[in-house]
Design a protein that fits this description.
Layout lengths: L1 H15 L4 H14 L10 H10 L4 E10 L8 H12 L4 E10 L2 E12 L2 E9 L3 E10 H9 L1 H8 L1
Antiparallel strand pairs: 1-5, 2-3, 3-4, 4-5
Helix pairs in contact: 1-3, 2-4, 5-6
Length: about 160
């Protein structure tokens, strides 16, 4: 039992350090822009232990940063999008970019993709009025192709 606990702790520590430079840079940009740090998610490293073993919907690894209570972002929206684009760099390709205004507040969603060997990385940044989320996924290319071909069908299989 003790050796199993040590193995889980080592795997958790290894996956916690696995974030790419680009993910880390996007988190830094949001942290610097709003003078805050991501919310701590206890035991999130265990998610990657299970994800690596089970591979739900072809996902092999997940990095997540959640920011809450950002305050007034309206004056920073365009600069933030440009800063995120610079942090991501040229190796990532823009996949989806949405900027909308709802109830007088701007919302921005930026999705980038990059091929890594036979797998794909997906980096999603969503910034709303007072919160932001950054997610990076390492995906199996075949599973990603199936999902893109029929997202409704794939979603039904996971319910």
């Amino acid at each position: 039992m003790k050796s199993a606990l040590i193995a889980v702790c080592l795997l958790t520590a290894a996956t916690a350090q696995a974030a790419d430079r680009e993910f880390t840079e996007v988190v830094r940009v949001i942290s610097d822009e709003f003078h805050t740090r991501p919310t701590s998610i206890p035991l999130f490293g265990l998610v990657n232990v299970f994800t690596a073993a089970i591979r739900p919907a072809g996902t092999r690894h997940i990095d997540l940063a959640v920011f809450e209570h950002l305050g007034n972002r309206d004056r920073k929206g365009r600069n933030l999008s440009e800063s995120i684009l610079n942090a991501v760099g040229r190796s990532w390709k823009p996949f989806v970019q949405v900027r909308s205004r709802r109830n007088g507040h701007e919302e921005t969603v930026l999705v980038y993709m990059r091929q890594q060997g036979s797998e794909w990385k997906l980096l999603v940044t969503a910034v709303e009025r007072d919160e932001a989320t950054v997610v990076q996924l390492l995906l199996n290319a075949d599973a990603l192709a199936r999902w893109m071909a029929s997202p409704e069908r794939c979603a039904r299989h996971w319910n």
